[in-house]
Amino acid sequence: MTVETEICLHLPDACAARLSAWPLLNGHPSRRQQLRAIYFDTPQGHLCRAGAGLRVRRESGAWVQTLKLALSTTDRSELNQTLASRSASAVPMLSEAGLAGAYILDPRGGRAKLALTTLFPSLAPVFETRVRRRSWLVSHQGSVVEVSLDLGEVCLSDGRSRDVSECELELKEGQPAALWQFALDLLSWMGEGPLLEPRSKAERGYGLVWAQDPSVVPPQSSNMKDSESLAAALRLALSQASSDLSRSIWMVLESEDAEGPHQLRVAARRLRSVLKMVLPSLSSSDWQQLALDAKWIAGVAGPLRDRDVVALDILEPLMVKLPSDQDLAMALALLADERDRCRVDLRAQLKSVRAQAFLARLGLQACASLPALEEADARSFAQMQLKRLVRRVRQRKLLADQSPEYRHELRLAYKALRYASSWLEGLGMGSEARRQQRKAARAQKTLGDSQDAVMALPVLQALLRSVPPGQSGRVLGLVQGWLLAKQG
């Protein structure tokens, strides 16, 4: 089984047409191929839910069976076997022997694994990809990168399809940092347009099959061993953050699900909490810029997320209680328009060079040399940080009853503890970090009802500014009463 390291960029049509003019490709001959691949899964979607992909593809005159298993944001293990076929057009049968020794996580949860050979009788074709590929092999600064432009579609037997327009950068020789720098160079040259694509063709195809796009996945614990360095823990956190953020971005771009901006802001805040803990040990301005960009991403997600909360957690539940109330219906309609405007603004920000370069720099910094952290003991660091954050909560609690401002500070302290604990758990803190995380989540929920009132009323006041005072006053009164009831 081999490991491939690659980065994928979605390219709008105009960018795809320009790729061959990229100066880094000058003087490098290109190769053109027509690629047809058939992907397989069980009726229950075992491979889809495990983040795996199984295909049979026509390559260089032969049919090749390939199993891909995601290892990280950029790395996938790959198991290949050439299949016997009577003709170029006839798709051969899958090889059970080609899956021997391969396992996926059991989608029912936990750490249990399933041998793919046990699923073999249930595997069947679920979709195809048909792609025109043009590729260049580029030697650059001591590394060799294959640049591939893929244009085509993912298609289902029922006629549904999804366009493919992307640039794959695959590391053939060299270090992963060179691949991320290559991606940054391309983003810089192209300008606005390219978008980092964390989902493989298999994942996008499986999403089309089941009429959903599994863009946002729960962030995984780093599972660091106590003996591993803080540097290794940070690299893993940055890699995970890049994946979580880019998946959340795609959810915002492709759907109106309120979970998209919510998960985007959570991922950005979680990253900020990690960076705040390690920044005192890192002197490079690159790290400061990452922290600033993480704060910016969380900030641009805020307006839409706040209005989603007002709509879904306040006005819509009120409408359930008062289904015929015309004033509430009017406020909800105005808020729907406001959410649409915020969504358009957020999508424009997420497509910007700044946002996409930020994701690429996360990947680049995950490959960086970190001498100041290499010798640091991860568990000792985690103990110190957890104690500091718990102490901060206790200090804020002493002042919380004095004013709303102090209660807000307490909520922020609990939030910092909750986000940090999710990372510190994997640095040897285990059950103690989980205990603090649960405690912080409960407190944050209680304090969050109060914060909803602080946030919601100004949003509604601005929204209803042009509405007759009698109507706006009535809506605000209903909302205030609802919020007071929620606070008990």
Description:
The strands form two sheets. This protein has an eight-stranded antiparallel barrel with strand order 1-5-4-3-2-8-9-10. 36% of the residues are buried. α4 packs antiparallel against α10, α8 (285-321) runs antiparallel to α9 and α8 (285-321) packs across α14. The chain starts with a strand and ends with a helix. It folds into two domains: 2-208, Hypothetical Protein Pfu-838710-001, CATH 2.40.320.10; 285-486, no CATH class. It has 15 helices and eleven strands. With 488 residues, the chain is of the alpha+beta class.
Strand arrangement within the widest β-sheet reads: 1-5-4-3-2-8-9-10
Q: Specify the CATH architecture of the largest domain.
A: Beta Barrel
Strand content: 15-25%
Task: Give the H and E element order.
Answer: EHEHEEEEEHEEEHEHHHHHHHHHHH
Contiguous helical run count: 15
Based on the structure, what is the oligomeric state of the protein chains? single chain
Measure the end-to-end span: 58 Å
Give the proportion of residues in helices. 40-55%
The CATH class of the largest domain, by name, is Mainly Beta
Q: Using DSSP, what is the number of strands?
A: 11
Q: Low-confidence segments, ≥5 residues, pLDDT <50? A: 213-227
Q: Looking at the structure, what is the overall shape?
A: globular
Largest sheet: 8 strands, antiparallel, barrel
Average pLDDT figure: 88
Provide a short characterization of the protein structure.
53% of the residues lie in helices and 20% in strands. It has 488 residues and is an alpha+beta fold. The protein folds into two domains: 2-208, Hypothetical Protein Pfu-838710-001 (Beta Barrel), CATH 2.40.320; 285-486, no CATH class.
